Amino acid sequence: MKSHTHRVLHTVAPLAVLLLTRVQPLAAQGAMPWETPLETLLDSLTGPTARVLAGLAFFIAGGALLFLGLEGGAKRFFGGILGLAVMLGAVNLVAIFA
């Protein structure tokens, strides 16, 4: 009987301590080390420079795919640039409406 009581006590006591103590999550403090670089990246992706670069990349890659008759790796390369330009443009559109 004593062994069973000790086993229950050793199981319940740590759980009670964990449940009764309030621990403030670190994410609520706003001091994560990666927040500043991510905010800098977001500012770069939503600024006027990114808008101009996305527009230029879109027209250059679209024109290359349309007029140059590319095959193989070059077609994939310009398709990737076109995809990046669309993504940058989408980030800017979200920033406008947010």
How are the SSEs placed, and which strands pair?
Blueprint (H helix, E strand, L loop, with lengths): L1 H19 L14 H12 L1 H20 L5 H25 L1
Helix pairs in contact: 3-4
Task: Tell me what you see in this structure.
This protein has helices at 2-20, 35-46, 48-67, 73-97. Helix 3 (48-67) runs antiparallel to helix 4. It is mostly helical. The chain is 78% helix and 0% strand. It starts with a helix and ends with a helix. The chain has a domain at 45-98. The mean pLDDT is 77. The relative contact order is 0.09.
Low-confidence stretches: none
> Largest beta sheet, briefly?
none
Number of helices, where a helix is a run of at least 4 consecutive DSSP H or I residues: 4
**Would you report the number of β strands?**
0
Q: For the terminal residues, how far apart are their CA atoms?
A: 64 Å
The SS-based structural class is mainly alpha
Question: What number is the mean pLDDT?
Answer: 77
Element order: H for helix, E for strand: HHHH
Share of residues in helices? over 70%
Shape: elongated
In terms of DSSP E residues, the strand content is under 5%
The value of Rg in angstroms is 27 Å
